[in-house]
Amino acid sequence: MPPKTQPKEDRKTLVGKMQNTKHCFYELLEEFEVIYATKPQLERLKPIFSEVESKYRTVMRQIANITDKLIDEGAEDEEAQTYWKQGGKIKSDYLDAARRFAQYENECCEKRGSEKKKDDSESIQAMTAAITKWLKP
To answer: Is the pLDDT of residue 108 over 60?
Structure first.
């Protein structure tokens, strides 16, 4: 049995799907921004950032498919450049969010590490005091 091939989509359909994904990307990015502003627990922010990242990758793949189709059809370079400019803006917005998420993630890890060291230090001091008290007659 020959492998199934998907029917080729026309440019209008591809552009419509890309516009929809782009809209979803910016909706998720807005949600990320609002939640990020509250400095939540990292576990609250991670899933939203993962969705933003997924939509970013999808929309960039769609832009590449559209420009490939334009090239196949012999369209003018300016038309393809329009989509690459949109992709550049989306990429810039995504990288800004990714940078801020990475910084926040590092801050949370450092904070957790220093809290753990403080807890460990207090535990060691308490154990030392208990042993010292126990050893004294």
So the answer is: yes
Q: Is the pLDDT of residue 2 over 60?
A: no
User: Angle 42-73/11-37 helices, nearest 10 degrees?
Assistant: 160
Give the closest residue to 60 by CA, choosing from 33, 21, 30, 104. Answer: 21
- Close Cβ partners of 136 (under 8 Å, ≥ 6 residues apart): none
Rounded to an integer, what distance in angstroms lies between the CA atom of residue 16 and that of residue 67?
A: 14
**Cβ-proximal residues to 25 (8 Å cutoff; 6+ apart), any chain:** 52, 55, 56, 58, 59, 90, 94
The residues near 90 (Cβ < 8 Å, ≥ 6 apart) are: 22, 25, 56, 59, 60, 63
Q: How far is CA 6 from the centre of its chain?
A: 29
Each residue of 53-75: pLDDT tens digit?
Answer: 999 999 999 999 999 888 888 87
Gap between the Cα atoms of 30 and 93, Å rounded:
11
Structure tokens at 15: 């552009």
